[in-house]
Amino acid sequence: MRSTGKKTQNHSYLGNAYRFSPDWSRLQRSPSGNLRGCSNDEYREFMGLLKDKGVHLMMVLHHFANPTWFSNKGGWTSKESTEIFQKYAKQAVDAFGDLVDSWNTINERMLMLLMALSWVIFPRTITILFIT
Prior knowledge:
Blueprint: E1 2-4, E2 7-9, E3 17-20, H1 24-27, H2 37-52, E4 56-62, H3 68-72, H4 81-96, E5 102-106, H5 109-118, H6 124-131
Parallel strand pairs: 3-4, 4-5
Antiparallel strand pairs: 1-2
Helix pairs in contact: 5-6
């Protein structure tokens, strides 16, 4: 489904469920920041359109992409990472909980670990996080 102003195109091939991940860096611009209103509104509009069609929504809070400010603070290796992500997750639940049916905190976390341990393409900081 795609919103084009007030018109909506129905893409029935989505089926009865939709799994998606909002862009964390778009929603939260800094570690201490609240979710941004305009991005929040865009996601809510999109989810509302799907809910109107009876679609079950599953939101994935982290899908392999970190905000630059998070990476600059050490990413997942930082002692603050858990607190930062917890704050983001709580804000997301507060902002979207009335529309989201199912939640997934971190997409394929074991795959992330395996790729970090065996491939050079993933950031080495992930490897350090799980080895230490």
